[in-house]
Amino acid sequence: MDSRHLKAFIFLLITVIGIPGNLYVILKFVLIRLVEKKLLPTNLILLVLAIANLLIVFSRVIPQSLFAVGLENLMSDASCKFSGYTYRVSRAMSICTTSLLSCHQCILIAPSTKIWIHLKQKVTQNTFIIILLILSMNLMLYRTSFLYANARKNFTSPYTLHLVYCDTDFQTYVSYIANGIVFASGDFLFVAVMALASFYIVYVLLRHAKTVKGIRSSDKFQTKSIEHKASRAVVLLVACYVIFFGLDNIMWIYTLTLSNVKTDMNDARVVLTCAYSALSPIVTIVTNPKLQRRLYFGKKNHILQESSTSLYFINVCK
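RESULT FIELD:
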């Protein structure tokens, strides 16, 4: 199997896994919202994460797949600009929502002091607004995609990133380095935040395991057990993110030292970025009981469903 066939197989595999997985998460959360008339803040964050991941697959993985199987010259300047902008914003939203998810869970399991209770209430009540602010920030920040993205050309500058059908031409060394430093710094900032939150979650999990050792029957323990299962799920998602996006950013920094980046290098970075988009819905589905439970539309069954539901993330403020 040559490199082109291997690329085609990898990108098609990500597409086959990523689209159904993220669509399932999106549709299931939408149905939960319609049936139960509410969606917990954490599930709202997971919904936004699934939408961002789905857009990543559509804007970057599918073009890579088509190119890998031999279809060329499919995108114009306008479509390259739109695809590039969609990919960059979606990728940023995937990063930010994963970080928000870890911080939110960190706040939920924090000690019930006056300050933490106030913070829990504020974050829980304003989750949607926080997401809108993050989206607005990314929409504004990545407008530069419209400046640099164009359809493939025969002649390019030394500071051009070749992305299958499109080129991202920074034209000058200063703009090339500045763009890389600004966006890589933002990525590492969110990685640092989610890593710190995850370390705290792990610390709480270990301390909790020692505290409740030998206790198996109380309602309080069962509630805490659900919370900490949710916390472990968040840590798993963050670990996946750190592995894939961490390697992606390391490669990105390496490309800043090159005057002409090869296509294979960019393809490897795309695989690392998009692998998380395909893997995260699987982790979400496996670890989220809400997504595994059938929805009942009858009033009686719905009441029974509500009374027996163990939510993926418990809103401790209520």
